[in-house]
Fold:
Amino acid sequence: MSHKPTITDSLQFPADSKVPRALFGIGAVGLIATIIGYFFDADQFFFSYLVSFTFFTGIALAALIMVMLHHITRSSWGVVFRRIAETFSSNLWIWAIFILPILLGIHNLYHWSHPELLDYGSADYDKIVAGKSAYLNSTFFIIRQVIYFVIWGYLGYKLHKVSVEMDKTGDWGLTSLLRKVSAPGIPLFALTVAFASFDWLMSLDPHWFSTMFGVYFFAISFQAFWPVMILLVFYMQRKGMFTNTIRQVHIYDLGAWFFAFTVFYAYIAFSQFLLIYYANLPEETLWYFHRLEGGWEFIAYSLLIFRFAVPFLILLNREAKKNRTVLTGVSILVLIIHFAEIYWIAMPVLSDHGIIFSWMDITAFIGLGGLFFGLFFHTLKKHDMIPKNDPKLDDCLSKSYHQ
Structure:
């Protein structure tokens, strides 16, 4: 007789947990400290904020595409993890409020927003910026941010809401609705994330452009998403959750995806560099040139070593993908270097004479990180942590019995 797997773990995050409140408190302290920094160095405030905002928003966006791909492919392997990803993406409509400081600091962050650059009679007139002004202008920039977050917020909220509804009703017909939302959602996601990456990071240097930058931003964000998932699962299992539901075979799946997107990241990052290298156009190569001098080159070489070579060589081993100590170490390493890479992309625009670290880089990260994960746990407490009535759940659980 076949053994039908059952869930013996509690599906509820402890209602009396103080984790969300503690994270909100840490986030508030971090943001207040960063806001105080604004009065000492406004430019540093906005750049530090942008780096951390991009870091955490990228994680939520990676969670959203993971959920949509899961539905459209009718996958069963990750059903036990899907609610975690759904929870991250479900908060995107709330997270949209944190774009406001970037909109307020548009003149501090983006050189193209200065009107004198478009004045043909001005000494500061910039022909290249003027040629891009139909796209790079403050009004259209703000409109685009609204469009992005309306789309992301709707997709994340809707997919989470329907999934939770299926928990309550057991109506498997809702899986069809989830696929119908995901099918148009994937191309919309691809377009909006690409343009958002152009807006937030690439346009910091309006003379530079890369046709691969949208995919590059997706690659770095999606590679970083898997370590977040791994560390969250390990944290919750140490707290007594998921101990009999998420098993070694599921942990291996997370490690395998982590490895796969480490390779994908390396392919995309190198492809972007190679295209610019052999084209040898000054307006393109200067972007890399400025990031290979003044101390920035140490971060560039660290990306090659710690974001690709080390994770690749370690996770190449099958057993390493199931070893919790190894996965924890590599996950922490990649998240640190992920922050460093976004920092390396953005900060040379502000510190063009070399690396100058600021305490606001830390406080902005702590502030936004506390609020980001506070929202996550606050939402997770409200519903079951696993889509318990998903038709693919038995297949997912059975996998651990048959391997």
